# Entry
Amino acid sequence: MEKEFKMKKWIVAAAALAVGVGLLTASASAAKLKACWLYVGPVGDGGYTYQHDLGRKEVEKELGDKVETKYLENVAEGPDAERAIERFAREGCKIVFTTSFGFMDATIKVAKKYPKVFFEHATGYKQAKNVATYNARFYEGRYVMGEIAAKMSKTGVAGYIVSFPIPEVVMGINSFMLGAQSVNPNFKVKIVWVNSWYDPGKESDAAKVLFGQGADIMVQHTDSTAPLQIAQEQGKLGFGQSSDMIKFAPKAQLTANTDSWGGYYVQEVKKVLAGTWKSQDTWGGMAQGMVVLSPFTNMPDAVKAMAEKSVADIKAGTLLPFAGPITKQDGTVVGEKGKSLSDKDLNSMNWYVKGIDDKLPQ
Amino acid sequence: MRLLLEKRSEHSHTMVYLSPVIAIGLTLVTGAIIFAFDGLNPLEALYVYFLEPLKYLWTFAPDDLWSLEQLAVKAAPLALIGAGLSVSYLANVWNIGAEGQLTAGAIFGSAIPVMFPEWQSPLTLVLMLVFGVLGGMAWASIPAFLKNRFGASEILTSLMLVYVAGLLLDWLVRGPWRDPGGHNFPQTIAFSDWQLLPSFDGTLHIGTLFAVIAAAALTVLMGRSLKGFEIRVLGASPRAGRFAGFSRKGAVWFCFMLSGGLAGLAGISEVMSTVGQLQPSISPGYGFTAIIVAFLGRLNPIGALVAALALAISYLGGEAAQVSLQISDKIAKVFQGILLFYILACDSMILYRPRLIFNRAPAAVPAE
# Structure
């Protein structure tokens, strides 16, 4: 009797265990979270989109079989964006990252229709209950690049290839110039607008023109590797953009201002898994690991040491790229001594600092 | 041994309509082989690519309606432009610049909300559409005029004007028409209310109806009116047309105005629905894809409607395949290319007979 009871107990326990395991595995596969990314360029662009995709892969690696990731590449900002985002929502994506500014209105529209899906829009300024925004303080890296440029340039002139006159880009130019002027107050920056994020042909033409006008260091706020390759060809120097481009210009790249989204993406997806996701506006910099300067190369040790110190100071918050007072191109002065301009001022920046050889397109 | 193409003395009439069907079949087979090489189950891949968007047709599940509506929305501009081009090409008027006329239509129509953002009335909507059509016509009138006055090749002039229109749009959205509150991004203000096409349920908008109406109207025009007869005669035999008293110059004007106007309508409809504002790129090349549509649809307006749906599937299926099967976005372009290749190949087979000529040397040795 006793034995029989024990036997029964075992059977019940085994059955319970079996059911439990079954339920667990079932719920595990059902709970696999779908995280989805929308890209404006091809994942192989070697720059902006490539970096976002590295972030997606990090999520896959870090969270393993808890997540399933999907992406759509090369989606034009415009007629196709809204449909692509809605497709994600319909496919069961729980969190959707839309990684280009031009996806902003489409993201907001779809988010209204799918209140249970979380959306994160990069570099935009419109939020909603289920739409968060995120961006990185790229200007921090550009300040250090400016310092390096001023040290390394023989002519004291840098060429700067830029895409669109939006605050993000203007902020980068100014930060670079402030960094350069901290080393050489007479430093000059020449600018060419190519009106595109990715156009290797136009970018390389612009690089040739700028080198021809006496610049000997190339900076870019466009995504292709072309300008750096021209610098390499002509024996000049330059900086990589978004992604470490050292493979394309081993003798020319000083460092690259790289975007590192992986940490942020992992954190946000984890929040969704834990049920703690909330809409917010994230603007992280070097301290948060969102902006990383790739290894300093092609420069003397003294310059390298200076750059490394600046990076450490920016991380510590003792070096503020936009600390006042700053003299604008028109001669007016903004900012208080020792205090950075506010985020609001930065995000609506539409003026140049003194010394930039260009008129800002208005 | 060599391959020779011989002109056929007679063309099979059924083959003219069968050829696109064969081409689509061959494309599917080729696609299946490519998918198989990629390590995918070809049947599943073809299902995701070509059939899933149409699922509503046999499931009737309200949830599946979305794909079908997206398909109609994507096909609408292609069908509109394709119908106009069909008529043009029948008359041997080679308007290659529909993309430019589309852009011009979008610009003309958008002038109203950009200059009078506060003006909201049903008339706004109507005027925007009318301006869109006029814009397309105005842009198309340039190659028509150059053709008739100077005999300039309309293929070149209409194509070149595509780039001019594109640059004009680019300049406008970066310069005078830029949204003052848009953080310097190259785009106009977002249109609203009567500046947008009404939609049935958020996705399907009345622009899709324009495509159906245009196809029906042009079918009647081509089949039942003197104008249609005139165009077909002038296309088939310009000399016969001249003897019949039909004006070649008149036909050039008519075709350009028709195809340009429809392209302009497609342009403004896109801006007033899926895009919602002017920006540097408003069309993923609809004006060029519509050339494939016109030929796939056998230069028949109703055919163009069907062909537009087929090409819309190739776009949307590419997107679905990317999400479900994780394959590259290039696959859609590969499919469109393969399809065009097979259509041209099949059409050549209608006009020509392939013959393998074997080396006749051995047979030619005379037995002495």
The radius of gyration of chain A is 25 Å. Residues 138-258+292-357 of chain A form a domain with the Rossmann fold fold (CATH 3.40.50.2300).
